[in-house]
Design goal:
Layout (H helix, E strand, L loop, with lengths): L2 H22 L8 H12 L1 H16 L7 H26 L8 H23 L11 H28 L12 E2 L23 E5 L6 E4 H6 L3 E9 L3 E11 H8 L7 E6 L4 E5 H4 L3 E6 L2 E2 L9 E3 L12 E7 L6 H7 L8
Parallel strand pairs: 1-5, 2-11
Antiparallel strand pairs: 2-3, 4-5, 5-8, 6-7, 6-11, 8-9, 8-10
Length: about 350
């Protein structure tokens, strides 16, 4: 493969892996299985391209006297790429390590490092892709071979898992492992509020022409008769299917009568964390007070946690204090999830 085609194929595969990896965190429905497959195939296709790349640059790497800033960036990119492949393979096969920071966490963290080093490498060694780099049947057959190699390695990993009955063979389509009924307590980034006083806690519902209402915990508890079975699939690599009990969001919205132009419902935590759901989806969600027949613990979001079937764990807001009905989509939630908890609890 021509040198520039190798470099740009490597860059494209890394970008594909980053985008599909980020996208996979937003997929909780089985219909989105292809995002995870694409991530795996794109990542494993790096193996062949890295082989071509190393074979070309090895003479320079092998002689420290020829090193420059670009060489350092190249070596760092190569090392992190190999570590990304290794951590991905270990996690999808053996689901190790399990305790935080687990294998998936390392895979994601090193993947972000790979993106950084690759950008530095591109900045120092940038050479645009030319038409003649793609000219000829051989170039296109090589690109097809890269894609095929990724597919074959991905299938090989699945076959190996099934044949050896590895922990990876028991994964959900998202790659998460089943923790059973004893699912762990996880905190999102800076979120770590003190336990809430149930006697003074309130849920406020307002916005978009609603008749604003405030509910006490005792009031919600009296009405917590709705139940659904839903799978909590955390982006840190585990899942659990539980029976959740509480108050239907649809019933609560019926009490505040949102206006016709309402589009989404935003759920907000005492930490400042928030996420929104389309109105049609929100009506089927649940504000849970209990799980598996027991009151929620503080770590699991007491007094009130959003249960959003088909969504990933980071979208199941904990310690909810507000519901706001909006007439437009809430893009600010993307900033809130990365800054919540920094300024402390919201009162």
């Amino acid at each position: 493969m021509r040198p520039r085609l190798v470099d740009w194929t490597l860059f494209t595969l890394v970008v594909l892996a980053l985008l599909s990896g980020f996208g996979s965190f937003l997929v909780g429905q089985p219909a989105g299985w292809w995002v995870f497959v694409l991530h795996g195939i794109g990542g494993l296709a790096l193996c062949l391209v890295l082989f071509w790349k190393v074979r070309r640059v090895w003479p320079r790497i092998a002689e420290p006297g020829r090193w420059d800033q670009g060489t350092i960036a190249s070596v760092l990119t190569l090392v992190t790429a190999l570590l990304v492949l290794a951590t991905g393979g270990i996690w999808t096969t053996w689901q190790w390590p399990v305790q935080f920071p687990n294998g998936l966490w390392w895979h994601v963290a090193i993947g972000l490092g790979l993106a950084l080093f690759l950008l530095v490498h591109v900045a120092l060694r940038f050479k645009p892709l030319r038409r003649r780099d793609l000219r000829g049947r051989r170039a296109w057959l090589q690109l097809l071979g890269v894609a095929a190699s990724g597919g074959l390695l991905w299938v090989g990993n699945q076959v190996l898992n099934q044949a050896l009955v590895t922990p990876g063979s028991q994964r959900r389509f998202t790659g998460s492992r089943n923790t059973g009924d004893d699912f762990p307590v996880t905190m999102w980034m800076f979120d770590n509020p003190a336990p809430l006083d149930l006697s003074s806690w309130r849920l406020r519902i307002y916005g978009a022409g609603t008749v604003a209402r405030t509910f006490t915990y005792a009031q919600l508890l009296e009405d917590a008769m709705d139940q659904i079975e839903a799978t909590l699939d955390c982006t840190s690599g585990w899942y659990t299917t539980q029976s959740w009990q509480g108050v239907s969001v649809g019933r609560l919205l019926g009490q505040v009568q949102p206006m016709g132009g309402a589009v989404v419902v935003s759920f907000r935590s005492i930490t400042g964390y928030r996420w929104s759901l389309p109105l049609s989806e929100a009506t089927d969600a649940l504000l849970a007070t209990h799980v598996a027949g027991q009151p929620l613990t503080h770590g699991h979001g007491a007094p009130l946690r959003l249960v959003a079937p088909g969504r990933r764990g980071f979208q199941w807001i904990k310690w909810i204090t507000e519901m706001e009905v909006l007439t437009e989509h809430d893009l600010g939630k993307w900033g809130a999830i990365f800054t919540s908890g920094i300024l402390g609890s919201r009162e």
